[in-house]
Specification:
There is one protein chain. The chain is an alpha+beta fold. The chain folds into 3 domains: 244 residues, 3-Layer(aba) Sandwich (D-Maltodextrin-Binding Protein, domain 2), CATH 3.40.190.10; 96 residues, Periplasmic binding protein-like II (D-Maltodextrin-Binding Protein, domain 2, 3-Layer(aba) Sandwich), CATH 3.40.190; 89 residues, no CATH class. The protein contains 20 helices and 18 strands. A hairpin with a 6-residue loop joins strand 14 and strand 15. The protein starts with 7 loop residues before the first helix and ends with a helix.
């Protein structure tokens, strides 16, 4: 298909004037004050260890205060919040943001635009990831008759072009033998606009990244149609820095990455407190934040630039090229782990080797305590016994392991086994392959378990 206009994600990038000079620290020598500008996405809660949570904890400011005492310089941090990665890239290539966080597909656009404009950027760390791709989900309205991706032919699907969620949509459709350019009508919309379009009926489905699918499902405004983990391809968000800034102030960038590592440790050790903090800062329900960032959440957090994630990034390039969003991208040249290695010190090798544990079922009680279970049936018994005391209950999909709300999951009874699935199509596939298995309502699953 001939494109007569630029894709919106690139159009946004081109509208920002490419001002000369560095970021906020351009005149630091004259004033004795260095301002580091950080772009982040508060509601993209897979980036909180480099954004929302890190900001609320004040760890970066703490690191800079200590450095300022040693250097005799005053360091300040300017936090700038955006809905997607595209405007962060625009500001970085204009020299106005020093450090930014965004998803894997926007990171590639970040690399391409930086090279094109001779304002190169570097991928310096990871925030959160899912090795199967579960951070992106396609959802439909709660009463929709759409049951699988095959039903999207001829339908209007909202997504943010150039985002990781768009990449998931394109790949999923291609695997289902559906042409993402010809067989659907793609609506290029910001997440909030797409959510409203879905609710209004002007979009039949919505493909978005964390935390929008979980939020809409929790609110009863959507149900999952496709679990991104079915692709079995890693998705992640990461931290990118202007190369000029990194070379000029490598110690400051390492301070940021040390602070990110500390925020990651805080999230992993105090997941409930972290979820409550992020919820307060973003207005998202804590239960939704915990779905992604909890002890068994969909996201795994760790700054190390794992080879599996870098390899996945390389596999993303052809998808963006086919959409004419980037040309060739040299991923190996874009990835620069020297700063995170120095920030971590001797612990980096261990961080690289650490693998996420399989998700367990988990209940969050109104008392504030949480408890995990080896099986979904055990969780159901706990929920049935604690009626009125449960704040949220989560179960991993029986096939992909993607965590989902227990009361929003599709339940299958197979003899004495009770199995949860994120989507109806996944449950139907299981039932068709297991004689005697049947889908059951959540209330029946609770009753059978107890």
């Amino acid at each position: 298909m001939t494109r007569k206009v630029l894709p919106a994600s690139l159009a946004v990038l081109l509208t920002v004037p490419l001002a000369a000079g560095c970021g906020g620290d351009a005149n630091a020598g004259d004033s004795g004050t260095v301002t580091v500008t950080v772009g982040y996405q508060s509601k993209t809660i897979n980036t909180v260890t480099a954004g929302t949570l890190l900001r609320s904890l004040g760890y970066f400011e703490r690191e800079l205060a200590a450095r300022g005492k040693r250097d005799g310089i005053t360091y300040k941090v300017k936090w700038q919040d955006y809905a997607t990665g595209a405007p962060i890239t625009a500001q970085m290539t204009a020299g106005k943001i020093d450090i930014g966080s965004m998803g894997d597909f926007p990171l590639l656009i970040n690399a391409a635009r930086g090279k094109q404009l001779n304002r190169p950027t570097k991928l310096v760390s990871v925030t959160g990831y899912n090795l199967r791709g579960a951070l992106n989900t396609v959802v439909t309205g709660p009463g929709s008759k759409l049951l699988s991706l095959a039903d999207l032919r001829g339908k209007k699907v909202s997504t943010s072009v150039g985002s990781a969620a768009d990449g998931t949509l394109v790949r999923a459709l291609q695997r289902a033998d559906i042409d993402p350019e010809k067989d659907i009508r793609k609506l290029n919309q910001q997440p909030a606009v797409g959510a409203s379009a879905l609710q209004a009926g002007s979009a039949d489905a919505l493909s978005q990244f964390v935390a929008w699918p979980g939020l809409l499902a929790f609110q009863g405004r959507a149900r999952a149609l496709y679990d991104g983990a079915e692709l079995n391809l890693p998705t992640f968000h990461g931290v990118t820095a202007r190369e000029e800034f990194a070379k000029k102030r490598p110690a400051v960038l390492e301070d940021f990455l040390r602070a990110q590592a500390d925020a990651t440790e805080y999230l992993n050790k105090q997941p409930v407190a972290a979820a409550e903090s992020v919820a307060k800062a973003t207005g998202l329900p804590p239960e939704v934040v915990y779905l992604y960032n909890g002890a068994n959440g969909i996201s795994t957090f760790g700054p190390a630039l794992k080879p599996a994630l870098v390899d996945a990034l390389k596999k993303d390039v052809p998808v963006l090229k086919s959409a004419k969003l980037v040309g060739d991208v040299d991923v190996d040249a874009f990835v620069d782990e020297q700063y995170v290695k120095r920030a971590y010190g001797d612990g980096y090798a261990k961080a690289l080797a650490t693998a996420p544990e399989p998700a367990r079922s988990e209940v969050w009680l109104k008392s504030g305590t949480t408890r995990s279970f080896a099986t979904a049936a055990e969780l159901l018994r706990q929920v049935a016994a604690q009626q009125g005391q449960v704040r949220a209950a989560y179960v991993p999909d029986a096939t992909t392991g993607t965590l989902w709300f227990a009361d929003k999951a599709v339940w299958v009874a197979d003899g004495v086994k009770l199995l949860p699935f994120v989507t109806r199509s996944a449950a139907a596939a299981y039932v068709s392959g297991h004689a005697g298995a049947r889908t059951v309502p959540y209330a029946e699953a609770l009753k059978q378990a107890s």
